[in-house]
Specification:
With 285 residues, the chain is an alpha+beta fold. The protein is built from 5 helices and 20 strands. The model has no long low-confidence stretch (mean pLDDT 92).
């Protein structure tokens, strides 16, 4: 079967007709669960059962579930390591553990529930799913605004809005998704000196957005790094250091570098003056 999909929504709202859930950053999975076995189907239709043999997936009755496989570490690269890995699965289970977050049930004991309202499907799901160490029931709330603020503060992917009276329509974008963040590529143009425990390296990376031959200043990013990445980046920055500001004017005090390194940055949105709001480093390109 094809999973139900979602369309982008600008912002969350509070409406008694809707519930809101966390939006997970993982692999969408339709799970067919029987007493003696389970099968996992990806959104593409590919069979992923053998890649995730560790799931303690149990239901009180035979059921078809909808949910998301996510990295237990909270990082998307964890699930990427598992998505198509057919060798070394035992080691991968240890290094990149996963959790199956279940948010819907579309069949129970052979009875199709797709035309059953979501409110009832949620009740059935709570009754039939047995939560285990790596299988969880997705929480939900009627306050989309508060959930969005909580997800934003936690650096999560976003939230999903669903109509309580809605049926399950395969491959239709009837659900709503509100993203907390966007991701894009930017050029490192300089850095600010570090303070405190980062006094020997850098504080933030000054960023530019490449548009043809033009670099536009978009602000700086100072979060999202671990110690190892800080050291590696700083080594490259020292090699690229020069005295020329690539913007033609210094938008902020910084040590300038040749604009050659490209990185990925996650951010909420652009401000009115074209600066990144709530940026976080996500890796080198």
């Amino acid at each position: 079967m094809k999973p139900m999909l979602a369309r982008l929504q600008d912002k969350p709202f509070v409406d008694p007709r809707y519930i809101w859930e966390p939006k997970y950053d993982g692999i969408r999975i339709i799970a067919t669960v029987n007493p003696s076995y389970y099968e996992l189907q990806a959104r593409s239709g590919a069979d992923k059962t053998k890649l995730f043999p560790e799931l303690e997936l149990k239901t009180k009755l035979p059921a078809v579930l909808d949910g998301e496989l996510v990295s237990s570490t909270g990082k998307f690269n964890g699930i990427q390591h598992r998505a198509n890995r057919i060798n070394g699965i035992a080691r991968a289970i240890q290094d990149y553990p996963v959790t199956y977050e279940v948010f819907d049930v579309v069949e129970l004991q052979g009875v199709n529930l797709q035309r059953t309202p979501l409110s009832r499907r949620k009740d059935i799901l709570e009754e039939v799913l047995i939560e285990t160490s790596n299988v969880s029931l997705t929480p939900y709330t009627d306050d989309g605004v508060k959930l969005f603020d909580d997800m934003l503060a936690a650096g999560k992917e976003g939230i999903m809005g669903k109509l309580l009276s809605g049926t399950y329509r395969e491959d239709k974008r009837d659900w709503l998704k509100v993203k907390c963040n966007q991701t894009d590529e930017f050029v490192i143009c300089g850095y600010t000196p570090g303070t405190g425990w980062r006094a020997s390296t850098f504080g933030a990376l000054v960023l530019g957005k490449q548009d043809g031959d033009k670099l536009t200043y978009v602000g700086s990013v100072g979060t999202g790094f671990d110690d190892q990445e800080i050291a590696a980046l700083y080594k490259h920055l020292l090699e690229l250091q020069n005295d020329i500001c690539p913007f033609g004017y210094p938008p902020e005090p910084a040590v300038w570098v040749m604009p050659e390194m490209v990185i990925k940055v996650r951010f909420l949105e652009y401000t009115n003056d074209s600066r990144l709001r709530f940026p976080a480093y996500k890796g080198r390109v």
